[in-house]
Amino acid sequence: MSPSPASWRGREYERPLPRAQPIRYNGAVLMTSFALRRLATFIATLIATSLVVFLVLEVLPGDPALLMLGIDAQPDAVAALRAKLGLDKPAVERYLVWMAGMVRGDLGISHTYGTSVAELIGERLVVTLPLALIAMTLTTIIALTLGVFAASKHNTIGDYGVMTATQLGIAIPNFWFAILLVLLFAVALGWLPAGGFPGWDQGPIALKSLVLPAFALALVQAAILARVTRSAVLEVLREDFVRTARAKGLTRTQTLWRHVLRNSLIPVVTIMGLQFSNLLAGTIIIENVFYLPGLGRLIFQSINQRDLIVVKDVVVLLAAKVVVINFIVDLLYAVIDPRLRTQR
Amino acid sequence: MALLAVDRLAVHMPSPRGPIPLVREVSFSIEKGETLGIVGESGCGKTMTALALMGLLPDGAVPSGEIRFEGENLLAQPEDRLCKLRGNRLAMIFQEPMSALNPVHPIGGQIAESLILHRGLYQTDAMAEAVRLLELVRMPEPKARLAQYPHQLSGGQRQRVMIAIALACQPDILIADEPTTALDVTVQAQILDLIHDLVDELGMALVLISHDLGIVGDITDRVLVMYAGKVVEAGPTVPLFDRRAHPYTRGLFGALPDPGRARGSRLYAIPGTVPDPWLVPGGCAFADRCPLVEPACRDEIPPNVEVGSDHRALCRRTDLTT
Question: What ipTM was reported for this prediction?
């Protein structure tokens, strides 16, 4: 006899939707409670991160004052600097002072640069944020194109080609790929600068100097995301509504872009969120390869120089960024899949 | 010239053990306004036959023979020509309304899509036409439905939307593959009445695939009984249902629950199951399950016997089933 209808009906609900939180639009009360819950998570995350960072830096060996003055420094000079930096005060007091400043928007003064940390972060962010956005855009374009292409050519030479290329992309370390890019496009062809950043007042030249670093950052991410896209698209291609779309007279390509892609975006957006959150790990390396005065380089230098206040502030900032990105990803889930808007 | 003439249609699926026959030598024809039922157990090739008509066989499946639509052999047409016919001249309704609609698009757009594609309508005109189609399939509050998503509709309503999509461009042939199997019994009757009325109203030809003999008997002019990929009996519905020349057809009728039968008595079932497509016996495919089997059935392909006017059965012992 025919397969029981009940078993077919269940299929639609078996599709796993990775950690997609339903967002309730039906009622302002529910929406407000959702926003409040998110705000509470945000604050809790920041407090937890600040505590962990503070404690880790407490137990880290290396006295900032000694490091700044050199190991030959006079003990009384070191002690004076420690007092100036507030390092002679108890840890609890220093944590509370830091937090109080944070609430007022005062991130403190960098020991090494002598300027306010907020200002320091601000001027680094104008390099790193565009870099990250360009890298993410490249990642998305490359990954979706390759992923959809591979899925549509499933088990053919095109699919194998993409799978091999992405395997290589995942295996190649991005700093090495960055060096290859420099050798080709900067040294051999002379099209793009090998490193450095002239400042945004230089306009297009500034943008040009971000192209190679963005590509270097995008490579690994695009390789991973292309594979995620491919398997998500392949899964959706098995759904019944794909056949309905074809029965309407849509071509394979039209079906793919109009009906399949959006249905396969939930896992893709999940991974994109994680990748965007993790982009900084990439920028620490890539900004060093390309001598870009960005946030990644700032955190690298600050750790080296025991500029602890900068390290602490930047880490908390990054934690905030992760929470914000997760929030955006959750909103995107509801945009992509209407079923997640009204789920009870 | 028949609207649709299928001649010795076969569908094979390649496998390491050689091609597996899923549909074998199926021939039939439909005139304009005619309704054809295809019945048989699951796995007998009904759906594959329907998908072959639409040119939507699963990847890898190879059709052969001829499917002539207004004289044009569809199996010889390139994909872009088929895309122009699908949804426009030939349309199909699927078994499973729960999953046959795209969950992330409002239904208005899903109905309007083929109108924009085949009729070249603008978005607003296509939407207005979508409202008319929803009225046609007797959907309550059609205008308000346009912005709704499939998950906000009941199973019966979704199937109505599927029918609206299929009818959007007023096709010449509507293929309905078990359109009511997944629905509640009460809704089944409504949807069937709707399909029946619309076919009459619009003068379409209908190919109705079902394992439910009651449904097929109610609304079709002709019936094909399929078994293991072959048509084992074909004829006009009323004489075929009366005569039941093939033992398999008899078995299908025997398997219908009879409201008058004694309470607690066992339902009749045809013994055994449909053979796997790669294990179909050499002679008559039904031989292993047939109560009338004789040695020759297993060795020789059964003759196609004319048992009545335009009524044929693939069996050597039709003399026993009068």
Answer: 0.87
